[in-house]
Amino acid sequence: MVLGYHCEALDEKEGLQLFVDGFFADITVTVNCNASFDLNIAVFDENCDMHYELDMQIFSAITTLSYYKSVVNLLENKIVTNYRLVKQQDDDVSCTCIHNVGYCCDRFDFDFVNHVCEILSKNDIDVFCRYNEALLELISKDNDYKDNSNFKLDGDRMMSEQRNAMIFTDDIETALPTARFEDFIEANDIYIGINYAIFKNSQSDKIAVIDSKYIKQFIKIAEKYESLESSNIKYYSDFSHLVYVEIERLKFLEAVVRINEVSLISEYEFLSKQMHELKRIAPNIPIKTSYDFSFLSAEEFEMLCFDLLNSIGYLDVKCVGKTNAPDGGIDILADEEYRRLQKTERSKWIFQCKHSKKSLDRKEISEIDDLMKEHNAEGYGLFCSNSLTPAAVYRLENKKEQLGGNVLYYGKAEISVLIESHPKLAIKYRLI
User: How many CB atoms lie within 10 A of CB 158?
Assistant: First the structure.
């Protein structure tokens, strides 16, 4: 018996049959006349057959390799001082892989084969440990990941080039002794984006952010080497240092990005730029041009207005007073520059920013004449995060006519049009 796995002698052959996990391996030894012997390992499924589907072939190759490494390790320690790989073939219709290994022996006697089989049947062969090593080794040699791979084999784990992510098969405490699984909380909201992957726990509202390229490659590897379904993947994080992903045998660990908010904004900006590039090439695609400002704070809306004025050409733009000040206060001062025939002149403008959850009515508009006189201004402007009622528009239009056109007003629709001409602001204020 080998580590509790069933083991039997082979009929009409010098060797044994080892059963593990629904598969069995025929391990046979052939003595050659030149004082060497061949060790042959063949792996079959429970029906003495192999189905030639991709995942079954991979699993068979890994299983064969794990048996092979286990026996080699045992024989090196007990009997053999030197060995060489004779050949490897997979042309037998009854099994996917056969490994033939030639061992050179310092001394030989007629009881040698029986002695090898006795050792194989009585000593511990940690097949599952070897399986994990073989699995990682096979992945590291896979042509799909060998070139330009983000991971390199490092003992019993695959380590990223920056050493901030790893793929492994053991438990998390073995892979990283400083990590305790009891510190991890399951992440039930997952987003894997272009540059960053974001994990959230809905109950605690915590967020963890990692570099997405490593977890993307891990999922690709898992799809090939595990029977991967979305329900099989479990995501966890301590939401301060690490993100941990567990499938079946393969596991993944990555360090979180230190400043989550910066990473989130960076991911958002990248996607937003991609959207605007797409719209530039295909302008008729249905991307909305009326933005929702309701989730902005009053301070953020005021800063959006500040940036808009700078973007459309006003000079010396300054925020003044306090946000949400009582009616009569102004929020922004700015200069408009214009050319006369012989010189360039400036006029002073004052702006109010109204961040409102409902349409702005006539009575909520300040006494424009008094404000302009108080601040010695030649123009008045109004920004409103919502729409303007017809009565409010009528009052502003009357005042505009009285002041020779020196009144401007921007409701939600007008601000949206301005932002469309300056898409960086839509990205900066997370409007798309």
Answer: 26
